[in-house]
Amino acid sequence: MSDHKATIIDGKLIAQIIQSEISAEVRHLSQTYGKVPGLAVVVVGQGKNSQSYVDMKRRACDEVGIRSIVLNLPEEVPEAELISKVHELNADPDVHGIMLQLPMPKHISEGKILSEILLDKDVDGFHPSHIGKLAMKGIDPLFVPCTPKVCLELLSRSGISVRGKKAVVVGRSNIVGLPVSLLLLKEDATVTVVHSRTKEPERIIREADIIIAAAGQATMIKGSWIKPGAAVIDVGRNAVDDPSKKSGYRLVGDVDFHEACKVAGCITPVPGGVGPVTFALLLKNTLDGAKRLIEL
Ligand code: NDP
Hints:
This protein folds into 2 domains: 34-118, Rossmann fold; 145-275, NAD(P)-binding Rossmann-like Domain (Rossmann fold). It is 41% helix and 16% strand. It contains 10 helices and 11 strands. The strands form 3 sheets. The protein has a 6-stranded parallel β-sheet with strand order 1-11-8-7-5-6. A 3-stranded parallel β-sheet has the order 3-2-4, with helices on both faces. Strand 9 and strand 10 (249-252) form a beta hairpin. The termini are far apart. The model has no long low-confidence stretch (mean pLDDT 95). Residues 147, 170-173, 175-177, 194-198, 201, 214-217, 220, 235-238, 274-275, 278 line the site of NADPH dihydro-nicotinamide-adenine-dinucleotide phosphate.
């Protein structure tokens, strides 16, 4: 039996480092221009979960000195009214980032609302224009969606260079798999995308120096699918039954963490890997957006 143990990439620690970097930049903006970045979070309906996420976001904003504006709208708000609220935020000079707390109620078209957010303030980076620019050589989008950006950030902050490496992305969704594959390509990796119709995924994944797992399939990637020494970023967040937990479930990734630790060079845990860094990068996107608008 091998006693190899992969290095664990600590997302919580990396998130703290990023947040302290953001704090310093926010202080600098405030001292130089007398302005602080502002992030508006639009919440429709009052689900308990969504409220606790929003509270968490508010606290994280406070910690780095970003002003948070939470717009709570009733569950039954008409779409037209929601659009006019988004337009008000678009026009507000103290708001530099706007994000929607998803999912929205059924009567609201998320795509329609997202497309109403000013491109300069779309800190989630979900607008097709951002993804389109990500796909084009020599052009950078105003914002890169946070979760894909986290994958690259975790690699670089762990000292792993991407250039020339074989990267396999498992998943091709608009919000994770596709943009992460485009980002890797921009960073000069040789990228293969595995999806639900891919034949022999294990053979392809085994060739990868870098694996980004974003399929939403609990522990799908086994230790034997991983090349020894590979870097593994596990984006998956899957709830599996666990009667020993008060909640009755626990979160696991797309990678069999226990097996992967015996083979991989480094790996992100679930929870505690990608998740904590995601909101830190949303704050970073807000700061970058604010710098563009304030320093004009
Ligand atoms: P989607 O369901 O939108 O996309 C899943 C992708 O995985 C699809 O492209 C699908 O292929 C592919 N896929 C599904 N099953 C398989 C399989 N057996 N083999 C290979 N590919 C497969 O999910 P998301 O992209 O939104 O999210 C992916 C995971 O990341 C989820 O677990 C989600 O919870 C997590 N997530 C975590 C975040 C974080 O902050 N940690 C943020 C966002 C997401 P096809 O296109 O052919 O259907």
